[in-house]
Every structure is written in structure tokens, then in C-alpha cells.
Specification:
By secondary structure, the protein is mainly alpha-helical. The protein has one domain: YbiA-like (Tetracycline Repressor, domain 2), CATH 1.10.357. Helix content is 45%, strand content 0%. α1 packs antiparallel against α2, α1 packs antiparallel against α4 and α4 packs across α6. The longest helix is centred in the middle third of the chain and has 16 residues. The chain is globular, with a radius of gyration of 15 Å. It starts with 29 loop residues before the first helix and ends with a helix.
Amino acid sequence: MGERKPIAMFAGEYAFLSNFWPEGDDGLSVEHRFQAERVTKEADKHAILTAATSTDARRIARRRVTMPIREDWDDIQVDVMRQLLEQKFAEPNLRRLLLATEDAELIAGDPWGDQFWGVDPRTGEGRNELGKQLMALRARLQ
């Protein structure tokens, strides 16, 4: 089987790849959990984890300028993301959907402009760390 066309946005049939996809009984997403891991105060964690949506969780985490962030965040954020993705895709249906992407390149088109985790769809610039993490996880699961 040849290479598949890249998946350039985690939307539509590929929305499950997004960190904004609600999971489990609590409806929290990787985005909720990731943003909560960044901060040091319990009140800030609570505000993020009780946000109604993933978008709200991200906005709360980004908007609260006074919110202290872990000093080691730059050193551990990739490992935190890897662990959260492993937890998410331990769910059998999500794992099946990830594996069904076969060898397609996964590109986290990020309209927020986050060029570390994604790629700006307007410019094509970005490191695509989320896409790389997902492809590495898929390879481990195959």
C-alpha cells in the first residue's frame, strides 16, 4: 500500500486527532489536562479543568497573565503531551481510528497560530510537534 495523502487539519472525520476532542465520562480533553499541567496554583488548575469546553480551557490558561507556570515547563511539556496522548488513545475506538490513518502524515493545522505544536495553515510554518507525537504513538501501536 502506498503513502496516503497527508491529514492537514484535525477536523471533520479527523477531529478525533485534535486535543480539543472530549474524552471519557468527564468530557475533558487533552487540552484541558495539558493546560492544567502547565500551572502551579490549584485554583488555576480547577478553573481550567472545569471549563465548559476545550476552547474555554485554552482561553483561561492563555488569558490569565498572572497565572504562574511551572518553571520546568519547557523541559517537560513534550513528555506531558506524550503521556496524555497515550492515555487518550488507550481507548479502543480512538486507538482504532488512529491506526486507520495508516501511514498518512499527520499535520496539526493550528488556526491559533501555535507553531510549536502545530502548523499555521496560512503560512505552512510550524514544528508540528503534536503531529509528530501522534505519528510516533501510531507507530508504537502498530
